[in-house]
Queue: 2 jobs
Job 1
Amino acid sequence: MSLALVARKSWFEATARARLGGLLDAGSLQEILPPGAAQPSPHLAALDLPGAFDDGVVIGRATLAGRPVLFAAQEGQFMGGAVGEIHGAKIVGLLRRAVQEKPAAVLFLIDSGGVRLHEANAGLIAISEIMRAVLDARAAGVPVLALVGGSCGAFGGMGIVAKLCSAILISEEGRLALSGPEVIETVAGVEEFDSKDRALVWRVTGGKHRYLMGDCAALVEDDIAAFRAGASEFVATWQEPLPSVANLRATQQRLENRLAAYATCRDGLQVWAALGVAQPEAVPLLDRDSLVALKEGLPT
Amino acid sequence: METLDFQFASAPVSRSAHAALCGVVGSGNLEILVQAGDQPATCQVSIKTSARGFGATWQAVLGSFAASHPAGGTRIDINDMGATPAVVSLRLAQALAEYRGGEQ
């Protein structure tokens, strides 16, 4: 095994707290509502299920390459990172604080399948409040950066939240979509989408596909240090644009064009061929740098 | 879910200003929060576990931990999702080491 592989710390395999430890400046992390200070989920207790002290999300403030940031990190290993009432309230409170404090950015480490179904309407309301709070922070000039590379990806309501953020930083292992593969298979049948075909799942929702499609601002290695480098560059260079109807119309047009161009495709391979990739079947095996070079060479 | 409470006599540990948290409430795993307690020679443990009927096993694993580690003067809260006794023992040692200020 090469030294580079030994030194790498996988983002995918790390817990939310381990990710934060490697992402932010050493010693700068101050957690808001640490374990013991907040109440665990009352809904899970009512269902006779053990909760987590932090309800599956760590929030707080820190510095990134010397700049002040607020952060929220979802723990994918606890109930699939799903958003319950307290989990959501912590994120919303953090985003509202960002409007007041105006940090250089909010870093949103997303690792979630969406709403926590055990909490039903409380979870749905929490997600809608997060959406509004993300847009309020951006309207106040605070960029919100989504970092997606955990085992649960960003699905359901959190897929929408990710796309509402200023930009998305994703790894090849990361996934981003609305309905998850198993949901699609359950609703529309295995002929429509085979959720057990992992390669297909990644060709349709995975980080490489999202990057090639222009859904994510940057593709990084599955390495906590690579996420740190990518996030530092974002915080140093990003200018949050003023909300504008013209931009929204342009985005709407771009999405309509995309639908017209790719609606009949059944697989990422077909989409990549239509994008102008000469050897689409080689894409899943490309390393990160080669894929970034490939995208830069594509016709726009 | 089952809630279990235990108290064990244990050699006093030096009091720490900060709490320590270890592990995640995931399948076969658990999280352990170690905080300062109010009785210097007693380790108080409160467990919420998804697996019912393992009270005797918890008592044996925690008793062995309290006898072999200085854990007096701590309050330990545990959220468990079916961790095996070996995982529980490792996490307890890890959490106490962190509480005492050692990194891992």
Job 2
Amino acid sequence: MENNNIVPVNNEAEDQFIIKDEIAVKVDNVSILFNLNKEGVDSFKEYMIKLLKRQLHYDEFWALTDVSFELKKGERLGIMGLNGAGKSTLLKTIAGVLKPSKGSVTVKGVIAPLLELGAGFDGQYTGKENIFLYGSVMGYSREFIASKYDEIVAFSELKKFIDVPLKNYSSGMKARLGFAIATAVEPEVLILDEVLSVGDAKFRAKSEKKVRSMFDKGVTVLFVSHSVQQVKSICNKAILLEHGKIIASGEVEEICAIYEERTDKKLETQMNDLIKEIDKSQKKIKKIKEKQAETGEEISAEVITKTEQKLEQLHGSVKEMEKE
Amino acid sequence: MANTDKVSFTEKSKGSIKGLKKYRNLLNELVRKNIKLQYRGSVLGLFWTCLQPLLTMIVLSFVFSMIFGKKNVANYPVYLLTGRLLFDFYSGSTKKAMRSIRGNASIIKKVYVPKYAYVFSNIVSTFITFAISLIDLIVVIAFYNIFIPSKAIYITPCVIMAIIPIFVLAVLATGVGFILATLQVFFRDVEYLYDVFCLLLFYMTPIVYTVDKLQLGAAAVVLKANPLYGIIGAFRACVTGQTGLKGQKGFEIAYGPGHLTHAFHLAVNTMTSGAFLYAVGFAVIMLVIGIIVFRKNQDKFILHI
């Protein structure tokens, strides 16, 4: 029937052997293939025409290739890499949202994905109703959520607004509620996707404290961040992804050093490319102006403004990069 | 640990019995949400479930009795209402099921959830509002029986047998719902096409007209290809005795000697007729296709929504 890439876990056996070195997350040779639709066919007419004309090509794109690692219970893994390296794809695969094209993922225990808090909320529902809805999305029974209800409301500091429809909440309030629900369940595996920046400074401190208290209880953590500092403060292990492949894995300090070195190099080359392009544009403008002076025509006013706009954009990106 | 159950995601994804049990609460919550939100903000709330079919019945019976004149069904408003309620359940549930995957894309993209729950919860919630709206039928029949004895409808214990066509209709709606939900993920056009198709289906089903009265040629073939034809006919046979089907002479069940056997024979005859058996087969095939198509494609949904 289905290709069961995923190995079932025998829960009874698991309960008998709770030892410190137990593996919590096992990612075994995972590859993910995306079919990038060249033209984005999503209507029936287009599909039929393309099918008849035999133009239905797909670009294949391996978002992850042969990614393997193991995490023991209580270990905290930082996943690092530049944009588009496959970090989010990897997290989604571990969370079970994406199915690996090859390989398998095994996770023992309850996973709480803290990716984009409040994704399961309904705007028309009140805060209270959303707590029960979100809890059910995470797979909990109504009784269990009811037993955690007071704790969730207290932590989110939204007691006054709990009977107000969520569409009237601010984004900070939504994030607080989401965070409170997701962490109330005391999961075994926690997936953090740059969410430690929820709400105001006071709540941020509170949420960080909560997450740290979960560390003490031996929760296994997967953390994605661009901030080397944050990764160092939270994780004890790290992997570095580039173009969907693990290029380094090991202790956090070691990997962070490699990451910093690589990003510096990358920034440098990008910067050089930009400078080259600025030069090119400047030369182009000069040329056009010279030509104009020669012929006395006004044909290329448009071209000049376009090139100037591009120049401005390039200057903008250079400034941004310098900041980094 | 406070965790009530420790089912790893590896098991959920297999759709095992344990997974179904774990996510039963999700299904409950979604059904609850659908019903709660349907009429939220309206003054009359859930009362609209009953009021709306009643009002459409009044409008339709007024319009169509003007056009068609004298009816060969004794009680046209009740005839209309029975057909309309069943049709509304079918079209309402399938349309909502069709939109359910794309409509919940934000959750499906972020958290692992069994996707069938979103499709099936819409079928269940529409079924519940449909069951509530059956009160209308009771009210209207009671109204005629008390105030207009000439148009009274005699209800027999055979009304219980109406559960069978209702069940078949629910199976059909579930199957079609799964097929449409899958198709809609890949082709958005399905949404607009199906709306038009439902309009066509409304006129292809004996809801506002009866079949034995019309002269049918080629139209009879198209009409009988419609599974709703047999299902609505069987439902009417059980409830009112006015089937509206070709060949099943719509006779009224009057109170008198042998009325119960009379009613029973009518119900059994309609449910063993070719039209109804065809509908049963059709519904089962749709359900099987729906489940297979949905299961085969559900892992690809995330790449398209």
